[in-house]
Specification:
The chain is of the alpha/beta class. The protein is built from 20 helices and 18 strands. It starts with a strand and ends with a helix.
């Protein structure tokens, strides 16, 4: 069933055309990725779909009664006072009704039989409405989403909204949309402010929802795991692709190759026609030449596949000098901020040429570590320094390195005062700032534009050690791909803080994992770390399942002992009781073994050596075997217990 139909839609602002001729349909339950360069009109398209903006041409139709929820990059929580109220969003009325019902119940309990018919009727009416509108189910849903996105659901009920940071407000805005009753979710950069763990949770949540999704995102791994359709805005229009992100990459390459061939073929034909016209316009064949000229003037010119690539970054990272073999040294480093310990007792050395991925939850201390390494703050204890002959360049997550009170021309000219004007403008043009845009002040730039300026500045350092703190934030996919290609060819050393799994998988040769003040130094790629993480997640899921199974066992033990006690004289019951006790011992033995195996797999240090990795695989297999044995033992114990209960009642 078609829920949204976009037909030949275009948008103009004065003399500026954003896009034209966009046509596609969205069916129920489909998950569309909306891709395109910054400024291509993705957010504008969302506003058209919701109806908050009207197209200059074309039409958009929506299924009658459809409910749309738009997650914008700028969050507004209305009159909500607590984190939970903001997360509940449209269910705020139900929350208020729940409070009202509680107050009414207290009043009725106080007055007792003196309650008036009006009080009772109001309570019954409100209670019926609360039930009808899902009052008994919305709270667990809000709790689950808040918990999944990194909030403490219980604390959120009383935590004031103004206590949240910008990143936390971003996650709360996402929670508000996910719990809404809308049929269609329009999510604009939903993975911004999410760490790896919460991004994975969001992927699972979106894959499991029956709602229709339209997603704007630059996170390629996220799109590959969620989207099943792609709309790519380029060249002032858009092309719809069937299939997920990986299928889109293949189809886009094939389409561009086809475009290039058609463009080259037409170019040759036009050149031959123009040559014929030049040679014959004044000769005996002038009539034919004029006819060909008329046809040529009516020919629609094809554009090459790179016609929309003018904004792509011409990014090449070069090294001025080789530098020493030891690029960064940490010896027993402890970092604390305002009395809170972030990293404790960390020792490691980064060698020349390594690409180290640094991952961990938001707020765990990764950025603080980079600032301490660059010398902007002192470690609480231990030694942290950069090696000899190492020239670092630090890309800050907040892009504070870009002076906001200067023009782009002044920013680059200050770094290269010996350059002529054309060289400065040429450098800016390679990062998408051509002509008069060089005179724009940095404080007028969008996040994506400031990111490109920061990269343009970094290129000029010719540093041999790059410290990159979330460099893909604000960049569109084309720019992220250009950055990834440049980093892959870079001959220096890289310390990369990122939540972009595709970039981490493509570049890293080593991974630092920060969790609970401890940094695990994993001597392998991020892809290998992810594989080992699945073993740990498996161990955790087994442990959770066993905890629940053993809880039921203990409950049954209590019941059995209460009912069987005092009836040991019967031989059959005594034999059954012996079987029950034997089964209990077997369960206890297997439970103990599972705890041992789980503890082994949950130790991050296990995965830092090749021998440890091999041991983890064997341990995971043994865990599966013991798990099946425990299931069988619990079944045997349950059967014996039930039989003993039957005999004890006869």
């Amino acid at each position: 069933m078609t829920q949204i139909s976009v037909s030949n839609v275009g948008v103009e602002f004065g003399a500026s055309r954003i896009f034209q001729g966009i046509t596609f349909t969205v069916g129920q339950g489909e998950r569309w990725a909306i891709l395109g360069r910054n400024g291509s009109g993705k957010t504008t398209l969302f506003r058209l779909i919701t109806g908050s903006q009207q197209p200059t041409e074309g039409a958009i139709t929506r299924e009658p009664g459809i409910r749309l929820a738009l997650l914008e990059q700028h969050r507004d929580f209305g009159g909500a006072r607590t984190v939970w109220e903001a997360g509940a969003g449209e269910f705020a009325d139900l929350l208020a009704l729940e409070h009202s019902l509680s107050e009414q119940a207290n009043v009725l309990a106080t007055v007792g039989e003196a309650a008036t018919p009006q009080l009772l009727a109001r309570y019954d009416r409100d209670l019926e409405r609360f039930d009808r509108e899902g009052g008994y189910t919305f709270a667990p849903r809000v709790d689950a989403v808040l918990q999944g996105l990194g909030f403490d659901a219980e604390k959120a009920r009383t935590q004031p909204l103004e206590q949240l940071s910008g990143g936390e407000r971003g996650r709360l805005g996402l929670a508000r949309q996910l719990v809404s009753a809308a049929n269609v979710l329009l999510l604009d950069e939903p993975t911004n402010h999410l760490d790896l763990e919460t991004t994975r949770w969001l992927e699972e949540y979106l894959r499991g929802t029956e709602k229709t999704l339209l997603l704007i995102s630059h996170d390629r791994a996220f799109l590959a795991n969620v989207a099943d359709h792609v709309l790519h805005l380029e060249g002032g229009s858009a092309v719809a692709y069937t299939g997920g992100y990986e299928a889109f990459v293949v189809q886009r390459a094939e389409r561009r190759l086809s475009q290039e061939r058609a463009f080259e073929k037409q170019r040759k034909v036009i050149a031959e026609e123009e040559d014929y016209i030049r040679r014959n316009i004044a000769g005996q064949n002038t009539k034919q030449a004029k006819g060909r000229r008329k046809r040529l003037n009516r020919t629609v010119r094809l554009s090459g596949p790179t016609a929309d690539e003018g904004g792509s970054m011409g990014l090449r990272l070069e090294v001025n000098e080789r530098g020493g073999d030891q690029v960064a040294i940490a010896r027993d480093v402890t970092l604390a901020v305002e009395g809170r310990t972030l990293i404790k007792g960390f020792t490691a050395t980064i060698q020349r040429g390594e690409v180290v991925g640094f991952v961990g939850p938001n707020g765990s201390g990764k950025s603080t570590f980079l600032r301490a390494l660059i010398g902007e703050r002192e470690p609480t204890s231990g030694e942290l320094r950069i090696g000899g002959s190492v020239r670092p360049s630090y890309y800050r997550q907040d892009m504070a390195q870009v002076p906001i009170d200067q023009t782009l021309y002044e920013v680059i000219n200050e770094l290269r005062p010996q350059w002529e004007r054309r060289q400065v403008q040429g450098h800016l043009a390679r990062f998408g700032f051509s002509g008069d845009e060089a005179q724009r002040r940095a404080d007028t730039l969008s996040g994506g534009e400031r990111a490109r300026v920061a990269l343009a500045m970094m290129v000029l350092t010719r540093a041999n050690f790059l410290l990159l703190d979330e460099p893909t934030n604000h960049l569109d996919i084309e720019s992220v791909e250009a950055l990834e290609d440049a980093l892959a060819e870079y001959e220096g050393t890289i310390l990369l803080v990122s939540h972009d799994r595709a970039m981490l998988e493509a570049l890293t040769s080593r991974v630092w994992v920060l969790h609970d003040q401890h940094v695990t130094d994993f001597p392998g790629s991020f892809a290998e770390w992810e594989e080992q993480s699945r073993e740990r997640e498996h161990a955790a899921s087994v442990a959770a399942a066993e905890h629940e199974a053993l809880r039921r066992v203990k409950e049954r033990k209590t019941t059995r002992r209460r009912e069987v006690k005092g009836d040991d004289s019967r031989i059959a019951l005594r034999e059954l009781r012996q079987k029950v006790e034997d089964s209990e011992k077997e369960v206890a033995t297997l439970e103990s073994r599972i705890k041992e195996l789980t503890a082994v797999l949950e130790d991050p240090e296990l995965y830092t050596t090749r021998e440890g990795t091999e041991r983890s695989l064997l341990t995971g297999k043994e865990l599966d075997v013991v798990r099946r044995k425990l299931d069988a033992a619990i079944e045997k114990w349950t059967a014996a217990t039930e039989r003993a209960e039957q005999l004890s009642t006869t």
